[in-house]
Design brief:
This protein has about 425 residues and is an alpha+beta fold. The protein has three domains: about 90 residues; about 90 residues, Lipocalin; about 170 residues, Glutaredoxin (3-Layer(aba) Sandwich), CATH 3.40.30.10. About 20% of the residues lie in helices and about 45% in strands. The chain contains six helices and 27 strands. The strands form four sheets. Strands 4-3-2-1-9-8-7-6-5 form a nine-stranded antiparallel beta sheet, with no helix packed on it. A hairpin with a 2-residue loop joins strand 12 and strand 13. The longest helix has 27 residues. It is globular and about 60 Å long.
Length: about 425
């Protein structure tokens, strides 16, 4: 056999061996994730490994769907790269970045990007599981369905009150907490023995609630974890008549405020003056942020009614308080607007923060939280200031709020 022929054979063998190796690597790197039910878990506290936030999702047809009680969050922005996969949650900027351990196992990080905060939690997920809180099967000590007066940070100088509303069926528990600035949206979990557990992951919230049912029927030893630095204690007692502060008496404009006006920047970089662009129009001013989940729920509702009321002389303007960088903020706002499908105007109002609220809107006297919504008549006099928004996760409260807003808009346009 000639030297040339031997050399050709060696080259061919090397090529075949490399092809087999490449094929095996490719097969490993592109292992398909199994389609069906999964449970993901975030490790919320590195010092307490027992503080785990579970959430349900399904994977299939190139989309991942997170479920929180009655809510479905569809993730279509999915990127595969070798043995890793990246899921970008809609509307907000949170991401899951994970390594595919096998077709039925993921391990990686959950990254949260808030208005100013950025942090991550260890993430893992297993295929074929459906129980949100594993092994929560002990017969419940009580049925906690109903309305609960809840004190957060009890005994501290900064304690505050919220309201829990729960619906329990056997071990399964759903509900939410109502707060002066809105609600904690869709919470889902379990009651097992005297333990209650609720969680939510929706792209903005990463929330874990736990508490014990006392012998007297109260909720005690409560813990809320919403982030690395957001950890609070809470207690609750059943109170069907519990009420939050009046949302129309939280934020306020200065006494004697007449016609309001301001100039801000639109998403094209152009200056917009309220009195010029919206002359003769009744205006809803939504003090908001693209990072705010209650603002998202309010914006979705306004989007539903905008086409019907715009021809009647109503304009809705989102005043977006974001970062101090216009280009970064513009990107966030555009993502928020496009994924919701909003058609009204949104203006960049600068950096998030109470002090900047008063700088941008000097007619404001008090500001208690996002969203705060100002209703202006056709001459741009303030007719109502409303703080907070109860979203669809609050059920009947959401339906009543929608009805109240529509009735007020009808009067505003008369």
């Amino acid at each position: 056999m000639s030297y040339k022929m031997k050399n050709n054979i060696i080259c061919l063998l090397i090529t075949l061996m490399f092809s087999v190796f490449l094929a095996s690597c490719t097969k490993k790197d592109t292992a398909a994730l199994k389609e069906g039910e999964w449970v993901g878990v975030l490790e919320m506290d590195k010092n307490e490994k027992s503080q785990l936030l579970p959430f349900n999702f399904t994977y299939g047809k190139s989309e991942l769907v997170i479920r929180n009680a009655g809510e479905k969050i569809v993730i279509k922005e999915i990127v595969r790269k070798n043995d890793s996969v990246f899921f970008k949650l809609p509307v907000f900027r949170d991401e899951i970045r994970a390594k595919i351990i096998s077709g039925d196992s993921l391990s990686g990080e959950y990254f949260h990007f808030g208005s100013k905060s950025k942090y991550s939690f260890p993430f893992s997920a297993k295929f074929g599981k459906s129980e949100r809180f594993e092994n929560a099967k002990t017969p419940p000590a009580a049925d906690i369905t109903g309305r609960w007066e809840t004190t957060v940070q009890p005994g501290d100088s900064d304690q505050y009150m919220i309201i829990g509303e729960f619906n329990q069926k056997g071990n399964h528990l759903t509900g939410t907490f109502l707060t002066p600035s809105g609600d904690y949206r869709y919470l889902e979990g379990a009651v097992s023995g005297n333990k209650i557990m609720l969680s939510c992951l929706d792209g903005s919230h990463t929330m874990l609630f736990k508490a014990d049912i006392s012998k007297e029927g109260n909720l005690e030893n409560g813990i809320l974890i919403g982030g690395p630095t957001w950890k609070e204690k809470w207690i609750a007692k059943r109170n069907e008549k519990a009420e939050l502060p009046d949302p129309e008496k939280q934020s306020a404009v200065k006494e004697g405020t007449g016609v309001v006006d301001f100039t801000l920047t639109d998403l094209n970089g152009n200056k917009v003056t309220l009195s010029d662009k919206y002359k003769g129009k009744a205006v809803i001013l939504q003090i908001m942020g693209s990072w705010c989940p209650n603002c998202m729920d309010e914006t979705r509702f306004f989007t539903e009614i905008y086409d019907a009321y715009k021809p009647k002389g109503l304009e809705i303007v989102g005043l977006c308080f974001e970062s101090n960088n216009f280009e970064d903020s513009k990107e966030r706002i555009q993502r928020f607007v496009s994924q919701i499908g909003a058609k009204n105007d949104f203006l960049y109002a600068g950096e998030v923060g109470k002090n900047n609220i008063f700088n941008v809107l000097p007619f404001m006297k008090e500001f208690k939280g996002y969203p705060t919504t100002l209703y202006l008549d056709r001459n741009h006099n303030v007719k109502k200031v409303y703080t907070g928004f109860s979203g669809p996760g609050t059920g009947k409260h959401y339906e009543k709020q929608k009805t109240d807003i529509i009735q007020f808009i009808d009067k505003l346009l008369e």
